[in-house]
Amino acid sequence: MKRQDYISWDEYFMGIAHLAGMRSKDPNTQVGACIVSDDNKILSMGYNGFPRGCSDDEFPWEREGDVLDTKYAFVTHSELNAILNYRGGTLEGSKLYVSLFPCNECAKAIIQAGIKTIVYDSDKYADTPTTLASKKMLKAAGVEFYQYKKTGRKITLDM
Ligand SMILES: [Zn+2]
Which protein residues have their CB within 5 A of the ion that is ligand 1? Predict the structure, then answer.
């Protein structure tokens, strides 16, 4: 008889999204994303960070001050990184797992990439204009989204 306590697809892909987020150098926010095909193959992953060649030690991680002194001018979000990291063809019809609800800028990229479903974990910025704008665009474009349902399972890895 087969094992009964294997992890579900949602636990697997959301787990991978969180694992990807652990690669982020951002001292305040770590977000990870995982894009999968409709037959549950992982197509791409990403986390928030500076573009290639932009040093994590030289570019700013600050959240306040002149725009050029903050991370906001430079950071690429996990969802956009996951989309851009995919070089295999089209993401049309794929599903995105992400540890935090996508902002409006990422929503534009998600829509234009043809991603059809978003599974998100945290929605802690639900009341902010960027998240409201994001949801407005996703709904208009017919992108479905639903919140990941926590199972309470504790998954540990000895590294
Ligand atoms: Zn974003």
Answer: 77, 103, 106
